[in-house]
What does this fold into?
Amino acid sequence: MRTLYNDMDIHFSLEGVSFHALNIVFEHFERTIPSHIHGNGCYEIHYISTGHGKLKANDAYFELTPNTLFVTGPHVEHAQTPVPDDPMEEYCVYFKLDSSSHMKKNASVLPSFIRTSFWLGQDRQGIHALMLRLFDELAKRYTGFQEQVPLLLTQLVILMVRNYEQLQISRSVFTPNNLADSKSVIIEEYFLYEYQDLSLPDLSDRLKLSPRQTQRLLMEYYGKTFQQKKAEARMSAAAILLSDPQKKIAEIAEALGYSSAEHFSSAFRRYHHVSPREYRKEQFS
It folds into this structure.
């Protein structure tokens, strides 16, 4: 189950900086989210309401439990996998900050929010209730919801910073973003959620560009070709799926969209320089 709001042009200003909420998502996780990163100026707030799973962020592993709150900012490589018997339910808001706007000199919230590229902890500010209200407003579109939703999102940022004040894990410096909002989100979503059946013509159609323009865009944004991004998405997902000892190699190959276990094993060896079985033994024995 997945509820997604990504076409409502939701934006607001906080302490002089413009925020655009590009994705607001609620999802019941029964699948792996492969390793990925966001561009400069992009921050994703995640709240786990029920269930359990694991988060891999910059080569560190974290347990995800009910009431876990975490943020992944620019250039934080992260991946998620649910516990099969108790999959997670997650609320997620993806913000893009306008690099052309200027923070006020007396800002009290934004300095901490912007420099925090990764944070994880138990929420102590009532964010679950805020998320429920946010999705209720978006679903039912009460009178004045266009004004109410930005207010709730502003409050979400403030509550995040109040959580930071209790437990700070890591920080990084904000740098201006150079990715086009809508196209970068389309690309990230495509490689994250559809790695089973990736094709350049399909992605080009979604971007409303020619295949040649799409290839040029991928090189500009990520310094990689479509085939390199495709391999990266599938191999990132493969590495996580291999952490489950109950999954057979043939099952993983099918889940990733390969025609056979042999085809998958060959692709995996080219990318990781070991076979899937050898990788599983080295990483998880």
Observations:
- The mean pLDDT is 88.
